[in-house]
Structure formats: structure tokens, C-alpha cells
Amino acid sequence: MFDWDDLKHLLAVARRGSTIAAGHELGLSQSTVHRRLLELERRIGRQLVTRHSTGYRLTEFGEELRAYAERVEAAVKDLEQHATDSARERAGVIRLTCPEPIVPRMMPFIDRFHARHPKLRIEFVTSDRYLDLLKGDADVAFRSGDTEDELVGRKIAESVWAIYASAAYVERHGKPAHVEDLAQHPLVSFDDTMARHRVVQWLKTTAPDARITARNNSVLGLVYAVKSGLGIGPLPTAIADGEPDLVCVLGPIPELARSWRLLTIPDLRKTPRISAFFDFVMEEREALKAILTG
């Protein structure tokens, strides 16, 4: 009756309100989107959109069709995800996301996993922001902090943070005696892309009037900023305690503590490759505690 692919164009126009915006979303020209819409209307035999001064709107019948189109879209995404997961299962690939600074510390653990399961392979997807496991950005995650309710996993260790400064900074400026003294020191923190991180929220509450001398979007960026002497700031003890140029000046800070968890989505948890990784993690839990907490 019609090309199912044309439903993508209908949904994009319905959501964006214009063929230009829909084209940007789909990576197509405005004329292509418009042509595919006309072809869809011709094949169905009904008008689906009307043009207004502010853009395009669905007709009454277009709105009826939208509900069905969204069901088709969801079914196609599920099919694609299933096919992708099946391919990864056959290839034995496990995409693991975790904060970049802990990757070097995890390599002996990963080597032991590969030795135990030579047909499986860990592929790192590193990021300081939370990748969306529900959207398939990664298969499993080592993560500290708040998590989505839809994820399943196991608690591995505690994430501990304290306030650090460079040895040179302490020699020149001293160190705060109490948390309340933080406002008297230049601080380093995350930038706006990490605005929801507990470190940002805690500093806003604890030292709202403090001068922020450096902002970064990664933990490594914070480490480098503190080591350079730009200011003092919260850092995970697992990383900062291994830096000879850094000095712990306050803490640990209870408000910044969270649990490290190994997480995945329910459907993947049942697959052999993910189950094998979970089982190995629990066997190696004590070794992972040393990696994740220092």
C-alpha cells in the first residue's frame, strides 16, 4: 500500500512542526521530506498534514494515523535493538562504560576476565556523563550516584570523595580547617554540562559565594586543575590518593559518598555474555573495591 519508511517523515513533521526541522532530524533536505509526505498521502488517499503560517499540523486523520505510526516506530526500534544485541551476543562483545580515570586501574581485572572467557571481549565506552543504557549507548556500566529505576544491578563498593589541593598550593596558601572555610579558597568544579552532578550541587550549598577558578566536564579535568594549583576541589579518593602531587585537605565528605554499582537493563541481564560478566565481577568484588575506592 505504501512505503513504511515514509512514516518516519510523517512523525518527524508532526514532532518538529516543519519540513525544514524534520529534514534536519532525518538528515534529509526539506524537499525530500515534502516529497515523501506527498507520496504517503497519495498512496493512502487522504490528506495527512495542513500548512499554516507557523508550520505544518496534522489533519484529524493524520493524528489518527500518528498513533499507529508511533507503534510501528517502536516495533522497528525493538527489532533493530534485538538484531544488534543478537549480533553482539554472537560476537561476544560487552560494551562497558565507566569514568575514564578508572580504566587504567581496571585493566588487570579485564585481563583476568578475558583469560577466564576467551570468547568474550570487553569494549570500553568511556564518559564522565551517564550514558543511556536504556537507549543502547552501552551494555553495562560501573556507576556511582543516582540511577534509573529501570536498570538492574549489584552494589560493588563505595564511592568516596574528599577535598584536595596541590602540595604547592598548600605551601603558598595553607589549607582549610573546616568545610566552612572553602569559601575563602579558589575552587575548581564541573561545568554546566555536569550541572546535576552531586559535586556541583554540594559546592553551591556549602560555598555559594566561593570563586570558581576552573570548570571542567570530566574528573580528569578536575584532577589536572587541582594539580596545577588553580584551586582546591572535591575529587574521588580512588584517583586523587594515587597522585603524589595532591594533598587531602578535608574529608572524606559524607554528602558526596555514593555506592558503586554494576548496572545493565533487564533484558540484557539474562544473556549469557552479560551473566558471565556479572558472575565474574561478584567473584572479583574485593579486587574491584580496591580499584573503585582506592
Written overview of the protein:
This protein is α/β, with parallel strands linked by helices and 294 residues long. It folds into 3 domains: 6-78, Winged helix-like DNA-binding domain superfamily/Winged helix DNA-binding domain (Arc Repressor Mutant, subunit A, Orthogonal Bundle), CATH 1.10.10; 92-158 and 258-293, Periplasmic binding protein-like II (D-Maltodextrin-Binding Protein, domain 2); 161-256, Periplasmic binding protein-like II (D-Maltodextrin-Binding Protein, domain 2), CATH 3.40.190. 46% of the residues lie in helices and 21% in strands. The protein contains 12 helices and 12 strands. It has helices at residues 6-16, 19-26, 30-44, 60-91, 103-116, 167-173, 198-206, 219-227, 237-240, 266-269, 272-283, 285-293, and strands spanning 49-52, 55-58, 93-97, 121-124, 140-144, 152-159, 161-166, 187-190, 212-216, 233-236, 246-250, 258-264. The strands form 4 sheets. Strands 4-3-5-12-6 form a 5-stranded mixed sheet. Helix 1 (6-16) packs across helix 4. The radius of gyration is 25 Å and the shape is flat. The model has no long low-confidence stretch (mean pLDDT 86).
